[in-house]
């Protein structure tokens, strides 16, 4: 399987300081690569690591949201991926209709109004959100 992980433009690997969210994403990608999957991480252009392909946008656009949206567009424009795994809070919803392939999103935070409004824009309904804890899943349903 060809798996793409979507991380913020500011996420640089190897990590310079502790960040549980990014450490978890990297460990997952490494496990997937070890099991024979082709794995690409879209993040900072300064990133590198073994057995994983690293991709980024060519230039820093000078704006956090613009950089991240451009990075997501780059990933979704690569049709060779079988699945996209987003580690963003809501930005993936804004662009998910650019692919018909599944986009899995690990929910790292509780959804807010901004997330709910962005989710309404996903007409293809190809985004699948996974709450990492039972408590978060119950709160989502509530």
Question: Would you give an account of this structure?
Answer:
It is a single chain. The chain has 142 residues and is α/β, with parallel strands linked by helices. Helix content is 35%, strand content 18%. The protein contains five helices and six strands. It has a six-stranded parallel beta sheet, with helices on both faces. The radius of gyration is 15 Å and the shape is globular.
Give the structure's gist in a few sentences.
This protein is of the alpha/beta class. The protein is 35% helix and 18% strand. The longest helix has 15 residues.
Oligomer, anyone? single chain
Query: Which spans have pLDDT < 50 for at least 5 consecutive residues?
Result: none
What is the straight-line distance between the termini?
Answer: 35 Å
Number of strands: 6
Overall spatial form: globular
Helices, by number, come to: 5
**Estimated share of beta-strand residues:** 15-25%
Mean pLDDT: 92
Structural class given helices, strands, pairing? Answer: alpha/beta
- Helix content percent band: 25-40%
Q: Radius of gyration in whole Å, from Cα?
A: 15 Å
Spatial order of the strands forming the largest sheet: 3-2-1-4-5-6
Main beta sheet: 6 strands, parallel
**N to C succession of SSEs:** EHEEHEHEHEH
């Amino acid at each position: 399987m060809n798996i793409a992980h979507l991380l913020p433009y500011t996420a640089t690997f190897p990590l310079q300081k502790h960040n549980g969210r990014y450490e978890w994403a990297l460990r997952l990608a490494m496990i997937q690569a070890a099991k024979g999957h082709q794995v690409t991480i879209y993040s900072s252009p300064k990133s590198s690591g073994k057995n994983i392909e690293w991709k980024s946008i060519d230039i820093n656009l000078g704006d956090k949201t613009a950089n991240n949206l451009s990075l997501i567009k780059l990933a979704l424009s690569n049709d060779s991926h079988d699945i996209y795994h987003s580690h963003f809070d809501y930005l993936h919803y804004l662009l998910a209709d650019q692919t018909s392939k599944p986009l899995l999103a690990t929910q790292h935070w509780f959804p807010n109004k901004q997330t709910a409004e962005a989710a309404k824009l996903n007409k293809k309904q190809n985004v699948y959100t996974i709450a990492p804890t039972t408590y978060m899943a119950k709160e989502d349903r509530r």
